[in-house]
Amino acid sequence: MDDATSFLHQAFDEAVAAAGLSADASYWPDLPEGSKLLAVGKAAPAMLQAARARYGPLPSLVVTSEFVDCSALAADVEVHRGSHPVPDERSAAAALAVLGFVSAMSARQALLCLISGGGSALLAAPIEGVTLKDKAALAKALLASGASISEINTVRAATSLVKAGGLLRAAAPALVHTLLVSDVPGDDPAMIASGPTLPQQSDPIAATAVLDRYGIAAPSIRLALKAPMEPIGEPTNSGQISVVASPAVSLASVERWAKRRGIGVRILGDAIEGEARDVARADAKLALNLAWGSQRDQLLLAGGETTVTVRGKAGRGGRNSEYALALAIALDAHPRIWALAADTDGIDGSGPHAGAFVRPSTLADAAERGADARAHLDGHNSATFFAHSGDLLDTGATGTNVNDFRAIFIRAARRD
Q1: How far apart are CA 363 and CA 335, in angstroms?
Q2: In what side-by-side order are the strands of the sheet with 264-272?
Q3: CB within 8 A of 216, min separation 6: which ones?
Q4: Using 50, 70 and 90 to split pLDDT, how confident is the model at 96?
Q5: Which residues, including other chains, have CB under 8 Å from residue 25's CB and lie 6 or more apart?
Q6: Could you tell me how far CA 66 lies from the centroid of its own chain?
Q7: What whole-number distance in Å separates Cα of residue 6 and Cα of residue 238?
Q8: Residue 99 clears pLDDT 60, i.e. is over it
């Protein structure tokens, strides 16, 4: 690993570290005796450990991904795993377990919900008229359509019994506090894991509009969305709702870290969306312009969640590795530019890689092994390409999730 690649790896580690929870922080609510802890999402085990360090061994339940290590959790913690990004039978079982865990709570109790990205797929409780098979097919169609995460979660919320405030209502009359690790552009609490504890209702009309926009047939889903909704009273048991970690916080931490090393930093945005390859081309153009005659090392940082519209049969990839491959092609082996695009949860798409590096020699190294960059990009086979070049980033599950981390390092032009 060269010095620039190692630097980018350290920057990623800094971003991940900044997205962790601290037992000593001020955002923790007061909890009465008899309260419970519920953690859902890719960051669930780490969030629960921080909560138990704060409150002690309260009754606790965790729902997380199959890729996340739960070995450090105490033996009394109830653990359920689901599938991500497409729900499966485990996701349905986890939803039932959660509903059982929060049922029969009293007004004298409180439920602290620790919510992070991934919760939408990890908890699958379909509405009447929708089967788990329908939900899985819908998830696959939405992920391949190029829809934004906000659009996807709008549909998820409208087809679920636990999302869009469903969990809040199930826990009534207990007071429900929510601490959130954001993985969505804009950090909207209603979009993080599709807002299971937010005082809100789903929007079937908006969900149907998303299906129309991307030409997704889903006849059983559409029929269920037309069913009359039972009136739901305004929830009165919603307590504190706080976003305690986010892409903006992580990028700011990396910015401070890099500036201490004398590097110029520009944050392009923490909520960037769009087609991964289009974002990459725009970023490459900016990086190439900055590299022209630059006398100072520079770092471009960005976060958010890009999308990949799958055309034809897809290979092995993910939105970050697809971005990285498009970026590598656009940079055309520039000798002073390196980059990293990775998901802070450690899983790009279906994993197990987190993302990929781009080095000046990446295209040549892959070509030596017979890998054509353009063909792999066209086939959405970016992870396979970077396996050939030796540039995949494999971290395993990180224990947090503040969405994509993209960094472009531009080494200064030296004058003799």
Answers
A1: 12
A2: 264-272, 298-304, 404-410, 337-343, 355-358, 392-393
A3: 138, 141, 142, 145, 210
A4: very high
A5: 244
A6: 15
A7: 45
A8: yes
**Among candidate residues 399, 397, 392, 404, the one with its CA nearest the CA of residue 250:** 404
Q: What is the pLDDT of residue 313?
A: 78
238 neighbors 198 (Cβ within 8 angstroms): yes
Chain centroid, CA 140 distance in Å: 16
416 pLDDT above the threshold of 60: no
Using DSSP bridges, classify how beta strands 78-82 and 60-65 pair: parallel, antiparallel or unpaired: parallel
Sheet of 36-40: strands edge to edge? 78-82, 60-65, 36-40, 110-116, 175-181, 238-245
The pLDDT, as a whole number, for residue 233 is: 66
Share of the chain above pLDDT 70, in %: 98
Q: pTM for this structure?
A: 0.87
Domains of the chain with bracketed CATH: 3-13+248-410 (3.40.1480.10), 20-245 (3.40.50.10180)
- Per the CB < 8 A criterion, the answer to whether 62 and 46 are in contact is no
Q: Is the distance from CB of 87 to CB of 135 less than 8 angstroms?
A: yes
